[in-house]
Amino acid sequence: MADYSKSCVVLMFLMMDFLEGSMGAVYKVGDSAGWTIAGVDYEKWASTHTFKVGDTVVFNYDNESNDVIQVTEENYKTCNSDDNPIDILNSGNDKIELTSLGTYYYICSFPNRCLYNKQKVAIKVSTSVNDTTPSPPGTNVPTPSGINSPPVTNPSAASPLSFNKHLGGLLVLASCVLTLYVH
Prior knowledge:
Layout: H1 2-21, E1 26-28, H2 42-47, E2 51-53, E3 56-60, E4 68-71, H3 73-78, E5 87-89, E6 93-97, E7 102-107, E8 120-128, H4 160-182
Helix pairs in contact: 1-4
């Protein structure tokens, strides 16, 4: 029985390590300042991060005076939130899982926030979270052309990826319990 217990514990640790290693990073847009006009340079902020497929960006803000509008590159450049926005977020705590390569553009639609206060950010998703191979020098990862729209995940809902991780952990735990029970 001790051998089964040891095997079960080792298997659980290996599974936890595997599942943790495949999780993406979580980035709070604007860091501690959040999504605001309080002197945050969002272009600089985005340029200091490497976003990967599987990562999550979180917009925290006062939803009485801010929102998050996903727009096309053209509308990003002109701060136009009225011309066919891709998505409109206004919960004050919006979580977006980055599910594919590309550049995603977000602006605030409140008056003067984007145009004069530069409350806008471009998130470039360049690699997969599990990709540990560096790109050769001088090469760029191709990005899809046209509108790139990652699905917005409801903050209270688990993503399919996290659901699969939790299911995998439960299966390992159930297997261990069953093995201990049988032996």
